[in-house]
Specification:
Helix content: 25-40%
Strand content: 15-25%
Distance between the termini: 63 Å
CATH superfamily of the largest domain: Alpha/Beta hydrolase fold, catalytic domain
CATH class of the largest domain: Alpha Beta
Largest sheet: 8 strands, mixed
Number of helices: 14
Oligomer: single chain
Radius of gyration: 23 Å
Number of domains: 2
C-alpha cells in the first residue's frame, strides 16, 4: 500500500497518535520532507508545529562517520566513544561544530523567519519524518529534543523497514509507524508523489500552523518545571507582572517578579535562540523568588532584530540591552535602591559579563550557567562583580572554555561543576543544583548598599578565589 503524498501519510500517522490529544505536545518535523507530514499530525492533535534542525558532526577525516549532532540553543549530543576512538582533540571538535552551527543557524533562520523556537520544557515532543531508512538523523533529532527539555519523546513515521525499532535504541520513549513492509529499499517507493520538499514549502507549513499563544507564554503557569529532576517551587512572588522595558531607543517585553521584602533584583540574559519564556531560566527565577530575590526576564532583541541571526551573537549589542534594562530597572519607584545582579546562560553569560565590566555599572554579582564567558574575553579583566561560573561536568568543551575564561577574571570568582550535567542541565537534579548554587551566590552578594542604590562605583573587589 502506498501513500498518495506526504499529506496523506501525515493524516494516517495522526490517526495512530490520537492517544496524545489533551497532553502538552509539540510536534517537530525534520526538514524538509518530514515537515508536511508533521503539519497534518500537529493539526490533528491541536498542537504547535516546529522544525527540529539537526546537523551531524562528522569526523574530520571521515565526515560520514558521526561523532555527534547539534541543534539550536547550543544543544549538542556527543558520542564520546567515537571521539576517543578517533583521537579527536577539543580544537578539532570545536572547528567541526562551528562550521556545522553556521549552517544550522542559516537553515533555522530561513525556515522560521523570525519566529521563536517552540520551548519543549516538560512537553511531549513528537518527532516526525516522512520515513526511516538508516534512522541516524531521526535518532539525533530525538536526542536533541530530549536535551532541549522534552519530558517524553515520541518518534513517529509513516513507513520504516522491519526491525527499525532496534535501530532506535533508547533514544525515544515511544515508536509509532503506519507501515513496516517486508520489501523495503527506499522511502520513496511507498509514495505515489514523493517530490522533493522545498524550503518555501517548509516555511509555508510553519506559517500555516503558527499558533498565537506559546505553551510557555505569559498565560502559562508562572514557572514550568523543565522535566524530571527539577524540584518544585512554592507560591509565586507578591508582585509578578508583564512589563515593557525601555533599553535605549527600543521597547522590549519582559516579566518582573518581586517578592515582599526583596533584598535585590536579578536580571536574566538568555542564550541564543531563547527568550524571556525560557523554561530553564524561569525555573531558576522561581528558586530565586523563593529566596526573596526579585527577577527580571526580558527579550534582549525585538522580533525584527531576531530575524537577523547575526544579532543573536552580537555580544556588544546584547550587553548594551542589559545595560539599558538595568537603567530602566533602577528608576522604578517600588524597587529603586535595590542591588542588581546578572544571571546569564550560554551567550547571555558573555553579555552579562560584558555589561558588568562597564565603568560604574554597579552590578553586585554575576552568575553564568552553561555560559560562554570566553566570548567576553576582552572585558573579563574589568569585571568587578563577584562572579560564579556554573558548568555541567559532562559539558566538556564549555567546561574547558570556562576554565580558560576564569583565568582572565580579576574579581572574586568561583567555578562550580555540577556532576553528571550536560550543557542544558536536563539530567535529573542538575538544574535544581545549578539554581541553588545561583541562589546562594546572589543571597551572599545582593545586599542593599549605597553603591547598588546609586549605580555608581560598585563594591571593592575582594580577593580572587579559584575552584
Amino acid at each position: 500500500m502506498r501513500f498518495a503524498d506526504r499529506a496523506d501519510a501525515g493524516r494516517q500517522l495522526a490517526a495512530r497518535l490520537q492517544h496524545l490529544r489533551g497532553q502538552r505536545v509539540v510536534v517537530l518535523g525534520l526538514p524538509r520532507g518530514g515537515v508536511p507530514v508533521a503539519f497534518e499530525v500537529a493539526r490533528a492533535l491541536g498542537a504547535p508545529l516546529d522544525v527540529i534542525v539537526v546537523r551531524k558532526l562528522g569526523m574530520p577525516f571521515q565526515p560520514e562517520l558521526g561523532m555527534g549532532a547539534i541543534g539550536e540553543d547550543g544543544v549538542r549530543v556527543l558520542n564520546q566513544k567515537i571521539i576517543q576512538w578517533g583521537g579527536i582533540s577539543a580544537d578539532e571538535l570545536a572547528a567541526v561544530e562551528a562550521r556545522e552551527r553556521r549552517e544550522l543557524e542559516r537553515r533555522a533562520s530561513r525556515y522560521r523567519r523570525g519566529r521563536s523556537r517552540q520551548p519543549l520544557g516538560g512537553c511531549v515532543a513528537v518527532v516526525v519524518d516522512d520515513g526511516i531508512a538508516t534512522g541516524s538523523t531521526a535518532r539525533a533529532a530525538c536526542q536533541l529534543a530530549r536535551a532541549q527539555g522534552a519530558a517524553r519523546v515520541v518518534l513517529a513515521v509513516p513507513v520504516a523497514p522491519p526491525g527499525w525499532q532496534a535501530r532506535m535504541g533508547h533514544d525515544a520513549d515511544e515508536l509509532v509507524c503506519v507501515q513496516t513492509p517486508r520489501s523495503f529499499s527506499a522511502i520513496g517507493q511507498f509514495y505515489a508523489d514523493f517530490a522533493q520538499t522545498t524550503d518555501d514549502e517548509v516555511t509555508a507549513c510553519l506559517e500555516r500552523a503558527a499558533t498565537p499563544v506559546s505553551l510557555a507564554g505569559p498565560a502559562a503557569a508562572p514557572v514550568p518545571v523543565p522535566g524530571p529532576g527539577a524540584a518544585p517551587v512554592g507560591d509565586p512572588p507578591d508582585w509578578d507582572e508583564d512589563v515593557e522595558v525601555s533599553a535605549g531607543a527600543v521597547r522590549l517585553a519582559g516579566q518582573l517578579a518581586v517578592p515582599d521584602q526583596a533584598s535585590g533584583i536579578v536580571v536574566f540574559a538568555h542564550g541564543s535562540g531563547s527568550s524571556r519564556h525560557s523554561p530553564r531560566n524561569r525555573y531558576v527565577a522561581a528558586v530565586l523568588n523563593q529566596a526573596a530575590l526579585g527577577t527580571l526576564l526580558f527579550d534582549l532583541l525585538t522580533p525584527d532584530e531576531e530575524a537577523y541571526r547575526a544579532n543573536v551573537f552580537d555580544i556588544g549589542l546584547l550587553a548594551r540591552r542589559l545595560t539599558g534594562a538595568t537603567r530602566w530597572l533602577r528608576v522604578q519607584p517600588a524597587i529603586a535602591g535595590l542591588p542588581v545582579g546578572y544571571f546569564g546562560a550560554s551567550t547571555g553569560a558573555a553579555a552579562a559579563l560584558w555589561a558588568a565590566a562597564e565603568p560604574g555599572s554597579g552590578i553586585a554579582a554575576v552568575v553564568s550557567r552553561g555560559g560562554r564567558p570566553d566570548l567576553a574575553s576582552p572585558r573579563l579583566g574589568s569585571v568587578r562583580a563577584p562572579t560564579l561560573l556554573i558548568v555541567g561536568g559532562h559539558d566538556d568543551v564549555v567546561l574547558g572554555l570556562n576554565r580558560q575564561a576564569q583565568a582572565g577574571l580579576r574579581c572574586e570568582n568561583d567555578l562550580a561543576v555540577v556532576p553528571g550535567a550536560t550543557h542544558l542541565f536536563e539530567e535529573p537534579g542538575t538544574l535544581t543544583a545549578a539554581a541553588e548554587l545561583a541562589r546562594d551566590w546572589f543571597a551572599r552578594y545582593l545586599v542593599p548598599s549605597p553603591h547598588s542604590a546609586t549605580g555608581h562605583g560598585g563594591p571593592d573587589p575582594p580577593r580572587r578565589r579559584t575552584g
